[in-house]
Batch of 2 targets.
Target 1
Amino acid sequence: MIILFVLLGLFLAWRPIQTARLIRDIDRLNRLKAETMEINVRLKLEKATLTCLDRVENLARKEYGFVDPNQNQVIDVFIK
Amino acid sequence: MAVKRKRVKKAPPPPNTRGRIVILQAAFVLMVAALAVRLYQLQIVQHDFYARKVLPRGKSLQRSLTGGGASALSASHRRGDIYDRRGRVLAVSTATESVYGVPAQLRREDSDRIRKACAILQVSSSALKRKLDSGQHFIWIKRKVAPKVVARLEELDLEGIGFREENQRYYPARELSAQVLGFTGIDNHGLEGVELFFDKLLSDAGKGNVSLAGALSTGKTFDLAGFFCPAADSSQGIGKGVLNCRLPDQACDIFLTIDKVIQYQTEKELHDACTSAKAKAGMAIVMDVQSAGILAMANWPLFNPNSFSKVPARFRRNRCITDAFEPGSVFKTFLAAAALDTGTIGQNDIIYCENGVFQIGRRTIRDTHKHGWMTLGDIVRVSSNIGSAKIGLSLEREKFYRLVKEFGFGSKTGVLLPGEAQGFIPPLERWTDLTTANISFGQGILTTPLQIITAVCCLANKGWWREPAILKAVAGRKVRSVSPSPLSGDAWGDGNTRPKSCFHGDRIAEVPAREPVRRVVSPSVCEKLSGMLEMVVKEGTGTAAFIPGYRVAGKTGTAQKVDPQTRRYSQELFCSSFVGFFPADCPQIAILVMIDEPMEEHLAGAVAAPAFRKIAQSIIRYLNIPPVQGGPAMAAYEARAAQGSSSRCAMVAQGSRQYAELAQGSSRRAEVTQSSGRRAGAADRNAAAAGDGAPVRLNDRQLKSVGRER
């Protein structure tokens, strides 16, 4: 009888503990998701900054010494 | 009566009871001890670990939140991102920290440590002291500080200083389309441009039923029926034009019709044109003719919206829509359209242009060059003010006024941007002969650059006038996902793939394409006008806009500006503009370039037309617009394709030859222009001798005899 009561007590105690644990896990995962999304946003921002056309053109001209081609060096290829 | 109590004799305890009691007591003590140990472990030993898990900001925040009155603070919501038409980021929000203080706790701190904190935050200690003495329970010390600063402050471990997570708006492309995008204030609410207009869509709406038309600050019709999923909709007003819907309770990302690459090229060429002409300002708009979607809207000077407060307010204005100018000769295009549409003047009618001087009342109208008899096409080609004035005077005023209004002048276009000016067309009852003559060549009226390009798009689009569009799509969790429309394949670019990089990502809904509002002129009139505008680029005032291998139609406009001091037309201040579209036979792109107060050279053909050409050439490459069918460039390309040459060297050689041929063709055209001009001069003299200045209708044989070479 005592064993039965003990088991019942354990079961009753286990449920809220398990619920609390799951809530904690959900909370942790939500936070992880938010952090990951924030990292994603920062990476997106960094990508946008690095691929900024003004920056790319400046790099090309100043760092790599690129120049505009002459008109007769340009061939327009049109894809039908 | 005495009650006799019965004495109950207690049963003796079983022999092992005492032992059981001891065991239970011991178990109880052990459990309590275990609980105490676990509590000690959680509260003392692992305190920091759990504190970090719960509050990532660390001890300072925890102390402030528990000790001060700041526990009610909640994290601010994230603002939606802005993308271009191909899903490239234009504006994005990231989390950042703001530093706040609880004066009651801060006053207890050591003054040296507070001074150190001020040095880290670059805040003057006297200003902080004033805030501390203001008697408030909560003060902002500095908003939106860098993570490094936060880390250094945390090291100081000050009592009464806390951090609140906020969102910082960034514009990674810096100056790119700054005036269109606008910017947000310290509280993340839009203050200008798209940020202001779509503020409620970009920020967390969550305010229940909101009229989207109201939310978008417009009284104009804006049908977004079925835009949001049913849970987010209310049935009111859907399908009735103005949409009343329940905005989603979260921020949405928006996609604009702006194309980042086209915008960059446009801004770059506008910058070059303005700096070389030493102009006060410049504006340029690129528009998709079919959908009236704005592909680029550039203003010069530029400003960086990441630090907008450092720039005067006049640079932050989107002058393409907020400022109205006298259009000048560009307006002759619409005069010609009105003349052809009403049938007042035919293509073959000739008008005497008074050899450069024409008197209307007390006002003398002049042309830059002396012209005699000219057809309507010639008047547009050489941009004769006198010819235009005569055409204007021959039109019925009511009809001319109605067409001018139908082209969209004098009223807002309805673009979804804030601060649009409606321009000015004098009321019909105030039109005199002089007013009519002035309006005929673009004086005495005010139009915004957007109105001009929208009207030109109408001509390029077989006479259908559409409202210019800036919003392409909305993305968000509660947005109804729509199947790709035929338009979306091209419009999104990169085949049929949709942008994947948006924040909320999962659902994107395209703004339904707007139906044409009205047909202003007939397709045949548009066709004739297109031919006339082509001649402007081939032989007229806009030859600098000529692109070898392509049919370009356009019109120059050099408008005198009113001197604010003398209140008369200035001889030094001009507004030079060029508006056109290409390919003329199947218009795809319309471009307007307007240079305000150029100092070096003021003629539009020399200032604005070259900028138009450069923008157009870059768009041709970017959008892969092939040369004219049957033209030399296309023939060379097709010959190359037929050969199937894979050798790059061969292609380079062919390309060089092709360009050389085109250049030769262009110079031949120039010679023809000069000689035909000389012949036309002789014809003018002959025709002038014929009689008065009234329009004369000629047949084809007579046209040949006056030296027209078409």
Target 2
Amino acid sequence: MTNTLHRYGDADSFRDDYVVFAICCRGMNDKDSVPKLRRFLEMALPFKPVNLGDSRHGGAFRASTSMHPTSHWNRDMRPDFQTVIDGLNTMTTAAAVFDNRVAAEDFLKSVKAADLGLSVNISTSIEGAEQCCHEADACRHSVGYSLGFEGRTEHLPNEDVLKLSTMCGHGMVSASFAKKMVDWVKEGRRTPDEAATYLTRFCSCGVFNPSRAKRILEEARTRQK
Amino acid sequence: MRIDPNKCVACGNCTYVCPMGAIYIDPVIERATVNRDECVECYSCYNGLSQEHLNPTMVRTVRKIFKMMRVRFDPEPDVCPTAAFAPEELTWPRVVRRAFSDPRVPHESTGIEGRGTEEVKTNDVSGRVKVGEVGFTIEFGRPGVGVWFRDIQEMSWELARAGVAFEKRNPVTTLMTDIGTGTIREDIMNEKVLSAILEIKVPVERTEEIIRLVRDVEKRLDTVVALGVATRCDPDGEERVVAPILERLGYKLERAKTNTGLGRITNLANPAPSAEVVAR
């Protein structure tokens, strides 16, 4: 999933960012894949993911189509994992996002034991993925390296904004909105937790990591430049 | 995408969430307006903003009173208070924008959402990139810049001249009128998308040559390029061939997507045709 590959940051900044996703190959292992993908998501729950996603229907934080004036004061800011699991009804990519390596390792062990037959990938730092595979006794088959961004990079925003916006590789989290959230946290208009939740709602496949976003927003608030 | 001027209250929330910065408040009509040239039909505004269904006249009145009193109110930043977005029926060639920009819409050519390709995510099952090969994903427009197909074609022409083969199960390849020359169909040249991927594979010995070629061409393009390089690991799970080449070229490898090798073919083989069918 290239949408998780090109996240901006150095290896250390991915210490709380582990995306594990399952995908089937058209014509090879796609028959009866829906229950397997759903099971993949269900198996993630005991390891306390920070987000779950289905590429077709979205993640555990979603926009509402029926807001009303009073809901501004009591919006549910918690992830809704069950909706993701129940809503997965077609062949797609299923993803579980963790904010620590031990959880990702344990989840991978569990997925390996279940032998779903689906392709399972980890997107994180190179070392982090190696360690997960080692702990789960999974032999890496292939690896896709990110070489970062090139070309007219003068079009790109600053580092904090880039770290936030590239967590949705599909580009649904705009740089302007990420910048606005950084500013609002600095101004004290919103907490990092709230700002991270707003951003996460825009990621349409559920791979945005609200836990890492919260940390980035905290760091941006106090950074002196 | 269009915004219903009868509903819009010019709150400005949508101007921030548009990945292309294509929405602005028109000072003449005092409504949010979409710049159609820049809009890539990603539907981020429509899908990402929560919708309230307030009365537009009431909201405009309240906003005017607050403005006169110089009061800054603090609305939720991810809400369209009057549900003013109205998706349009897209026709060819504009529909290409949505196909490449809205990640929820699967590409017709491959049946896959997002950028529409499996790359090495399913390599343990598909064998797309084999031992001794390197797969490149050359992605344009990401993050948040966007790309016109005419820029993608600049690159595809150069790659074709270098004699590389384009991955057939890739949405951009399916829009080529001549895969041999990397020529993309003329009627979409002026269409802009959020991002798109050219996908190729070459023998590992050509890794450096391709990277230098991409670096050279990207200088001529008015967009950003995200390069992904994929390869097979050794039987012991180590990758000792491509990483040293990339590091020698000056890349600091920070992040990767790792296929854990847990996939396998599970579809039952197609039943053999009967003797009667074969005879026909």
